[in-house]
Amino acid sequence: MKELLKTGAFVVAAATLSAIAVYTEPERLTAAIFSETGTTFYPEFKRPQDVKTIEVVDYDEATASAKPFQVAFEKGRWILPSHYNYVIDVGDRLVKTAGALVDLQRDNVVSEAVADYAKYGVIDPLDQKNPSLTGRGKRVALRDARKDVLADFILGKPVEGKTGMRYVRAPNEKRVYAVKTDADPSANFADWVNSGLLRIASANLRKVSIVSYSIDEQMGRLANLEQVALTKEGANWTLAGASGFNKNVVNAMVATLDSLRISDVRPKPPSMAEGLRSGRLEMSLEGAMSMRQRGFFLTPQGRLLANEGEMIAELANGLVYVLRFGELASSQGETKGGKGGDDRFLFVTVSFDPQRAAKYGDTTGNGERLAKELTNRFADWYYVIRGSDFQRLRLKKKDLVPQG
Q1: Where are the domains of the chain?
Q2: How far, CA to CA in Å, does 269 sit from each of 104, 166, 273?
Q3: Predicted structure pTM score
């Protein structure tokens, strides 16, 4: 009888302890979930200037593919390793980008369930095990000079009804937080490259000639040739052979030349680039194939042609730019053949003409120095410009003269 009473007492005690455990466990879990609220994700990351690499991976749901982008400081200059080491001037963009992620705090926990990641847009864009094609966020990693991680985040959707807040998760953590931050680093090339590729100040333009043609590749000849010549006299533009024209169209063209942005780049073959820096274009098989793929051709007479024509811009300091418009370009650099998108390849050359400088009254000689600087800059690259800019630049007479 005593043994039965002892056993019964143990059972009661065990049941009581179990009840207490069940009753208190949710509080312990709740306490654990909220224990990190208000803490900093990366407390050691204090100085934006310590950042020497920014890695941004965005996700394109339309193509179900990750879009990596990287900015890095190497050998005393900022480059884009994700875009053929193109050299850029980051200005204050990098400090602003890094500064927006310094001392980022875990403000409010919203979930730690993996099943909720898509709802908050915090699936890692690099996660190949997760089958979801939606709900992926933007991953941003900041590294120091030794390539050590200073901070690493997955930035999700904005928090509905709360301006300046978005869902955030650290890649090595399960919990999702609503965080106060305006950080949204771009993975787009154009956002990191300054406008004004050509360094043409509109006030210095004196003449613009736009030459349209089609190419007989077999004979190396031009067909359907049309030329538009605009000359600036004082503050006004005149169009050769026309008493009136659409000034708004001309103003848009001039403004585009002044602030032309590039949306991507492709490297030219090294031998071609070296020749261009020396003021010549000696064509190898590699160079010919490289140009042809992008819509540029060298005739047997040594003339460089483009399948969408060209523009010649003359400046007051004697600089002469030739912009040649090539094939449609995709984000991977292959020609699109007219399908999906309207970005264009652009081949730029520049020279100095002392006679033009004298004609326009510039005797400083600055044009010659600038021509050498720009030649070195343009020699290495095929540029890609937006289709809208291409349309503003490559004008025909029908675009300028009212049809009636």
Answers
A1: 48-192, 202-400
A2: 44, 44, 6
A3: 0.84
